Amino acid sequence: xxxxxxxxxxxxxxKGQGEVEAKAGSIASMIExxxxxxxxxxxxxxxxxxxxxxxxxxxxxEEDIRFLKxxxxxxxxGDEVSIVPAIAGG
Amino acid sequence: xxxxTCRECGKEYPTKAIHVCEMCFGPLEVKYNYDEIxxxxxxxxxEEGPHSMWRYADLLPVEGPGYLGPHAGFTPLxxxxxxxxxxxxxxxxxxxxxxxxxxxxxxxxxxxxxxTRARELGFETVACASTGNLANSVAAHAAAAGMxxxxxxxxxxxxxxxxxxxxxxxxxVEIEGNYDDVNRLCSEIAGEHGWAxxxxxxxxxxxxxxxxxxxxxxxxxxxxxxxxVVIPMASGSLLTKIWKGLHEMKALGLVDQVRTKINGAQxxxxxxxxxxxxxxxxFFKPVKPKTIAKSLAIGNPADGYYALKATAESQGAMDTVxxxxxxxxxxxxxQTEGIFAETAGGVTIGVLRKLVKQGTIKKSDVTVAYxxxxxxxxxxxxxxxxxxxxxxxxxxxxFEKTFKMGKNGGGDA
Lengths: 90, 413
Known about the structure:
The structure holds 2 protein chains of 2 kinds. By secondary structure, chain A is an alpha+beta fold. Chain A has helices at residues 27-37, 41-45, and strands at 2-5, 19-22, 56-60, 63-64, 80-85. In chain A, a hairpin with a 2-residue loop joins strand 3 (56-60) and strand 4. Chain A is globular. Chain B has a domain at 77-101 and 207-381: Rossmann fold (3-Layer(aba) Sandwich). Chain B has a 6-stranded mixed beta sheet, with helices on both faces. Chain B has a 4-stranded parallel beta sheet with strand order 8-7-6-9. The model of chain B has no long low-confidence stretch (mean pLDDT 96). Chains A and B meet through strand 3 and strand 5 of A and helix 7 of B.
């Protein structure tokens, strides 16, 4: 199982849960699986073309998936995924 | 302040401590009632206001009256005749936020707004993720306001920026990782704890404070907009807000036109926004930062997209400098204008120099360089590049011998 941390704006879709579990071999399939359990989640994360939205950051075991293989990044049992909105700096 | 609105899809939200659109994850921005503001604002009213950034309170997202950080802003706009002559510019100015109150960086502006708003929203604990300057400012303002404070910083910060937190006695949390790691962790902490995270759930208000750098520049230039500005970029928020501030002044009739070209500056070792600009892309690829300009070391810049847009719309440019050029830039500004900037200032001066050399900024352009932080906080960057004091015995003979002086004056050592 993969542990997925859900950010506050998406929690209305997960009945308030900050962490959910999913069975998936990649980020893309994880999004599909999550969408089945929590309908509407995919629309929030992906635009009309199915690509991840500009302001969505996804991390696998603390590494930004843009440094890995993006949506095709593979997942294995025990991995931890964080979904995080982009935030400002300084 | 009318509402918060999503920059991407336009959905409106109440003016609470939220920062992300639930629908599309776009950042939320403050929406004002400009028609109302226009009725009450004038150059005269601003000029009669307090000697701080709060003279522009009508354009800041707080209810007031009663501001935390009442002395922030209204820093000098220095006519840089020596540096201008050196670079070949007729009219160069330095917007000098190295002397901002109370913690010597432009972050005192954004934090004054953020903490004022946080208190208005009823928060007792404030927090931030920071590359240093923001943490210093949040810690100082929280101490003065009697609020509980947590600051989260990367593990490799300059000593003065770490000490500049500890002295105010907040909870200082050093993360084993870079700023982007700190930011990600804080975003998750913010979801769990009901704190005012100034650059997360208070971000829509916080970021607006940067507009005052544009307002002040225009007023201090005698109600003129500059032809060119050079702005350091980390998250890209400062650049975006200076652009917004200039256009608000036009919308409110405080200036007739805005022809300002917005130029962004980054260090080579962390230049995701400049790299995208040069490649003609409207999206950036995150990087792992490696530069002495630690205050700009954000590899995943949240406002990078909007910074690219503002620069393109204004027909400005972006460029980068090496760490060596950063140090040269710091020294050049200090030795021509007597202003000691931190590494971000070295980036700005280095890129200014490049843009003039390339002909992007022309001799007759009225140009403003934004110097956002104080050099005493990043001494490590220049310590090996400034030489040593001349050490002598306490005798007149030793002194005159060292400086090769005769009885009637003489030369340098």
